[in-house]
């Protein structure tokens, strides 16, 4: 007999004579009531054991964490808050758990403790919910782009180009590190390395994505990216997933429209599909915020915050306007910012981004037209000769969630820019070819998937929204 998933049983239109379920025991009360979970839903199903007719030996083995299979009738539940329960007729222990040693006790654990047990934390309500939401969000990403006729492109994880400049890179090599081959100049001879050249893990699929957009018109990538920055913050991972659409013939404003529409779609899709999980996470967040000072608590509950994004347009301001707002802001005048904004040209730090979003606009914000010299070489130079068609989307509680731009499609302007910055033309010969043959206006952006999951789940540390986080000093599991 094939077992049925608990979610299906809880949604059943009627009671049933016999059902078969498999799952893990969350709790076992009064030698009688099992709260069983199989990961299909946040909700446990209550299974009532006939303790008089069950061997004492078996009852002893029904402990938190154990895997069990059981059969019984799906009946209307007497208990409050649950529609059905299973009146157990037979029960088999599939895998014992040691109740003394099992780390996921039925009590509140700190997020730090759970991170150290990332292989088991997914058995808790919160992490089960987060991982289901993450899964639905990623499906929504594909749905959005596929419905719009974008082509999904798998760009390489190992890259020979280290010119993108999006961050520090992890080197990939098969050379023996304790006995490196040297060339005549005494440097490491990468000709002897696996690929015959120096290679890294990718920081972004954009450059390859651009080449494909110049043939397929509308493409997106969705894959892992790697950055070796030593930034130990609650917003940075060394390995994270990025979604990068790239669209031929789109200018910067089309790009902003696409990003906004896309973000709304995936949030709406997830709100519609993950009601139970999001309600649970909303409660978790309220509980967590009780321990914070009033001023730091968010004004909106999780679902209100998500609905706010669905119902309100993002505010769009140029970098120049943003700098004016920040220069005249109270924390800047009172020197409360760590980085005081003195003049046009300053890079925006996350404290500034959060001020704009959380205090000034109280809404997601798109900042565009940044100074050329704080942005990447491939961004399109504006008529003013000092700003580029860049756009960053800033979210409450997160800061930057999207970074994108209109790309420099003019070969001569791009070459000049690369020369000034010192990027080798040879190295990016293939990228430059896209400007040599049928170049056209095009734009794209990158959305950090974990930052989106942070926003939707109301979690506050990025380590808690990816199954096994990689951060400086940590690659356990
Ligand atoms: O702004 P970034 O560096 O942009 C790019 O990589 C461009 N090539 C994207 C493009 O135009 N196709 O990164 C894009 C987004 C950021 O806005 C942020 O959400 C996320 O990726 N991100 C990180 N997320 C987690 N950990 C990190 N270390 C991240 N670095 C960037
Ligand atoms: Mg960025």
Describe the structure.
The protein has 477 residues and is α+β, with helices and mostly antiparallel strands. It has two domains: 6-102, Nucleic acid-binding proteins (OB fold (Dihydrolipoamide Acetyltransferase, E2P), Beta Barrel), CATH 2.40.50.140; 123-168 and 203-464, Bira Bifunctional Protein, Domain 2 (BirA Bifunctional Protein, domain 2), CATH 3.30.930.10. 32% of the residues lie in helices and 23% in strands. It is built from 14 helices and 16 strands. The protein has helices at 6-10, 56-61, 111-116, 125-147, 206-216, 252-273, 275-290, 302-311, 319-327, 330-333, 350-361, 411-421, 429-436, 449-457; strands spanning 16-29, 33-37, 45-48, 67-76, 84-95, 151-152, 158-159, 171-172, 199-201, 218-226, 239-248, 315-318, 365-371, 387-395, 399-406, 442-448. The protein has an eight-stranded mixed beta sheet, sandwiched between helices. Strands 1-2-3-5-4 form a five-stranded mixed beta barrel. α4 (125-147) crosses α14. The longest helix has 23 residues, at 125-147. The relative contact order is 0.11. The mean pLDDT is 95. Bound molecules: 4-amino-1,4-dioxobutan-2-aminium adenosine-5'-monophosphate (4AD) and magnesium ion (MG).
